[in-house]
Amino acid sequence: MPFDTRRARKFRTAMRRRIEELRTRTEDSLDFAVEHVMQDRVDSFFNVEQGLEEIGHTLGLIEEELEQVHDLATAMRLESRLEFMEDRFEELDSEARQRPRRRRRRINLADFFKATGGGGERTARLHGEINNAHDAFAALGLRYGSSMRAVTAAFRLRAKNLHPDARKGDRSSEPELRRIIEAYQYLKDHDSVMHAEPPRDL
């Protein structure tokens, strides 16, 4: 689903802000690791150092791909990739500082486009394979009528497992990743449907 130039510009601006913030935090975390981790916890230091360098490299790739975003599906994939890097940073920074992981507020891409689109446009209508709640639940491996909390948990787990960054760059799972993104967005945008639409007889 293509989106107009104004919304594309707003999306890129928001993404660049997040990329720059994560890049700054990554550099700060690496400085901390050099000063406080390297001498006392060598194995941990090398793990943190390598992970932070990989994040820095991936942020550069995301920045390059950002200019090629012209539709919602691609934007969602790229936003998911950045979110994966943000989660990875939290793991590494927590390891370096020996503290529990922080809980951060996630930016919801669908809500972002609704806010910038003006009005009640249903941005999740990607005209893909997911056209009803039954298919959406099935795509996420859930029983019909599962709660949105279960939907969100299932989506995050499957998205992380299918994401190319978790599969050493292997993009063969991207069609399935797009399908579960579509299923998740459908259920979020049609929350009432799952309670109003009767289950199918199998």
What does this structure look like?
The chain is an all-alpha fold. The chain folds into two domains: 5-117, no CATH class; 133-196, Orthogonal Bundle (Helix Hairpins). Helices cover 66% and strands 0% of the residues. It is built from eight helices and no strands. It has helices at residues 5-36, 42-66, 72-97, 109-117, 133-139, 148-162, 174-189, 193-196. Helix 1 runs antiparallel to helix 2 and helix 1 runs antiparallel to helix 4 (109-117). The longest helix is centred in the N-terminal third of the chain and has 32 residues, at 5-36. It is globular, with a radius of gyration of 19 Å. The two termini are 32 Å apart. Mean pLDDT is 77; it is low at 105-127 and 192-202.
Radius of gyration: 19 Å
Number of domains: 2
Largest beta-sheet details:
none
How many helical stretches? Answer: 8
Total strand count, please? 0
Low-confidence segments, ≥5 residues, pLDDT <50? 105-127, 192-202
Structural class: mainly alpha
Write the layout of secondary structure elements.
Blueprint (H helix, E strand, L loop, with lengths): L4 H32 L5 H25 L5 H26 L11 H9 L15 H7 L8 H15 L11 H16 L3 H4 L6
Helix pairs in contact: 1-2, 1-3, 1-4, 2-3, 5-7, 6-7
Pick out its properties.
202 residues, mainly alpha, Helix Hairpins, disordered C terminus
What's the short story on this structure?
The chain has helices at residues 5-36, 42-66, 72-97, 109-117, 133-139, 148-162, 174-189, 193-196.
